[in-house]
Design goal:
Creatine Amidinohydrolase; 15 strands; alpha+beta; single chain; 5-stranded antiparallel β-sheet; 26% strand; 4-stranded antiparallel β-sheet
Length: 256
């Protein structure tokens, strides 16, 4: 989830990063179970219930629920919906859709944030390529998360993969710092110049979330005040991990 930011980069201790790893594992499990439930005919609200149950069963809280007024525990975005889609009992997945689930879990005050785009049944080759390239870009960005690099190195790596594939790159929304607050500094754009921006230091934790499209870079927010869609109706994908920068390199916190 990418919307609001706090004004300071907060460095975490190794012990705090381990606590974030616990929150991240809960979010990762909720995302996996949500993905396993994806099938034609299921409503996005039913997917929301699966993820929320997984989070609460682990003794955690769904971070998104009530955040800045958001009414659900996951963001559920279909096809041209890029981010922040609101789950609904009347919106059902159809064969051939692409469906993005974004999940946050708060455990012992620390937050894990992760997302993935799933195929609903069999999807067309271009949609599958969109998902694959978005994931490739995520890991290209993660590889740059080493002390001494600049934040722009992360953004540049993500953007280079997307542009080489001819995809649109969402400019208005970005990754973000994360910790006990859902959104901290720094903002992590999905495109930008290498060698620029904040110096990456051990103890920084960021949520990296490439958002690519099969068409435009431009988006608009629907009247619900949340759902962000491509202006040309092209499909979108989002893949996200929470990542700690350590002396030993990047550490993905949102894995089971």
């Amino acid at each position: 989830m990418s919307r609001f930011f706090r004004p300071k980069i907060i460095i975490k201790t190794p012990a705090e990063i381990e606590q974030m790893r616990e929150a991240g594992a809960i979010a990762a499990r909720a995302l996996r179970l949500a993905g396993e439930a994806v099938e034609p005919g299921i409503s996005t609200l039913e997917i929301n219930a699966v993820a929320e149950a997984a989070i609460r069963d682990a003794g955690a809280l769904p971070t998104f629920l009530g955040y800045q007024g958001f009414p659900a525990s996951i963001c559920a975005s279909i096809n041209s919906e890029v981010v922040h889609g609101i789950p609904s009992k009347t919106v059902k997945l159809c064969f051939g859709d692409v469906f993005t689930v974004d999940v946050g879990a708060t455990y012992n005050e620390w937050i894990g944030d992760t997302a993935n785009t799933f195929a609903v049944g069999t999807i067309d080759a271009e949609s599958q390529r969109l998902i694959d390239v978005t994931r490739e870009a995520l890991y290209a960005g993660i590889a740059q998360c080493v002390p001494g690099n600049k934040l722009g190195d992360v953004s540049h790596a993500i953007g280079t993969v997307g542009r080489a594939a001819g995809l649109g790159i969402i400019q208005k929304y970005a990754g973000h710092g994360i910790g006990k607050a859902m959104h901290e500094d720094p903002s992590v754009p999905n495109e930008g110049p290498a060698g620029k921006g904040a110096l990456l230091q051990a103890g920084m934790v960021i949520a990296i979330e490439p958002m690519f499209t099969l068409g435009t870079d431009d988006v608009v927010e629907r009247d619900d005040g949340w759902t962000v869609v491509t202006v040309d109706g092209s499909r979108a994908a989002q893949v996200e991990h929470t990542v700690a920068i350590t002396e030993d390199g990047p550490l993905i916190l949102t894995e089971e």
